């Protein structure tokens, strides 16, 4: 770790906790002007102030000395699946949370080498890829059989790309992905979403990473949605089942294809298998369901990430790290490691400096049960 204070990390820690400069100043017992000058690089805080800032943001003091780059909110750094009405404050918090998870992954992965990973499909920027062709390419690369796609998180994590699920603070922001982090991408999904919406958001972010590769375009959100539909519901496989779709058939199709009722109706319309009138009528019926379109009936079991927990357990089991040493390596408190990655409520404990070595770790199979 660098010995040089990184003012940007104060902003990152503050925003990840959803704090304003005024709120952080109050918690740390200093003026807002002092916080502003620290974040803008005009003042470097003394040790006692640094300790109060760390306590207020619930991070180790070492957090402020990380030298890794913090990705901005530009579309080339972040791909957001969001509505234009999303307020600025939750967007800033979501971006900060995604960056914090990314930094934790980078530090954990830095001293590991995978024996083998599944290939990640990239669409060549020199060729014109439609979303449908890109989705077919991904399925072919991963050797997926026709029909419903199996656990999508497991397929993505088998390529070495960590997937995170966290509360992004606003239901309108369903996911964030960051391309090319330490040779790997990172995807963060909003834990506030139901299973069907979360799975579609994951496919949408995968579409960004496969097709856009750090570039931006006016049509990228529409193309990512089209990619997600094609990946989860290939035309050649689902066409017969959506022909003349009836509303009463949607529940069984949702259980089979693991997509939302709304996504099925939209796919049937896009493929020309129902009329415009049927499309509008179906969405009116969806809005009249008890939970409306936001909380559809018939949700299936959530897909859960496993890669980060698998790697943490590799450090503990095979490399003989204690949990507090792993937390130190990832630059977070041990109680946060327990809460975020193990679903535990742990007391705050003192952390220790870990030893660092380069190790090779086998990737778990996409269908492996790791715990």
Automatic annotation (TrEMBL):
Residues 13-64 form the HTH cro/C1-type domain. Gene3D superfamilies: 1.10.10.2910, lambda repressor-like DNA-binding domains (1.10.260.40). SMART domains: HTH_XRE. CDD domains: HTH_XRE (cd00093). InterPro entries: Cro/C1-type_HTH, IrrE_HExxH, Lambda_DNA-bd_dom_sf, Rad_response_metalloprotease. Pfam families: HTH_3, Peptidase_M78. Belongs to the short-chain fatty acyl-CoA assimilation regulator (ScfR) family. This is Helix-turn-helix domain-containing protein.
């Amino acid at each position: 770790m660098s010995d040089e204070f990184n003012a940007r990390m104060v902003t990152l820690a503050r925003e990840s906790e959803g704090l304003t400069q005024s709120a952080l100043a109050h918690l740390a017992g200093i003026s807002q002007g002092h916080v502003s000058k620290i974040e803008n690089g005009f003042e470097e805080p003394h040790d006692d102030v640094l300790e109060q800032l760390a306590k207020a943001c619930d991070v180790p003091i070492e957090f402020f000395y990380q030298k890794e780059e913090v990705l901005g909110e530009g579309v080339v750094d972040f791909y957001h699946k969001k509505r234009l009405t999303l307020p600025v404050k939750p967007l800033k918090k979501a971006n900060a949370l995604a960056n914090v998870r990314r930094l934790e992954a980078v530090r954990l992965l830095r001293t590991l080498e995978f024996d083998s990973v599944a290939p990640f499909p990239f669409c060549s920027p020199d060729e014109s890829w439609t979303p449908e062709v890109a989705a077919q390419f991904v399925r072919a690369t991963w050797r997926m059989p026709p029909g419903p796609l199996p656990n999508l998180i497991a397929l993505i994590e088998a390529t070495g790309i960590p997937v995170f699920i966290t509360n992004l603070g606003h239901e309108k922001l369903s996911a964030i992905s960051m391309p090319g982090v330490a040779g790997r991408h990172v995807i963060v999904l909003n834990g506030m979403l139901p299973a069907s919406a979360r799975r579609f958001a994951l496919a949408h972010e995968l579409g960004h990473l496969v097709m856009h590769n750090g570039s931006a375009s006016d049509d990228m959100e529409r193309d990512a949605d089209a990619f997600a539909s094609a990946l989860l519901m290939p035309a050649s496989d689902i066409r017969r089942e959506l022909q003349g779709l009836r509303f009463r058939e949607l529940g069984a199709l949702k259980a089979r294809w693991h997509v939302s009722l709304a996504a099925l109706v939209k796919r049937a319309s896009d493929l020309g298998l129902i009329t415009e009138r049927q499309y509008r009528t179906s969405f009116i019926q969806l809005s009249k369901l008890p939970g409306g379109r936001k909380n559809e009936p018939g949700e299936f079991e959530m897909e859960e990430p496993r890669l980060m927990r698998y790697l943490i357990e590799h450090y503990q089991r095979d490399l003989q790290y204690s949990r507090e040493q792993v937390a130190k390596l990832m630059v977070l408190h041990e109680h946060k490691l327990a809460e975020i990655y193990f679903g535990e409520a742990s007391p705050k404990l003192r952390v220790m400096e870990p030893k660092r070595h380069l190790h090779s770790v086998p990737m778990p199979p996409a269908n492996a049960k790791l715990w």
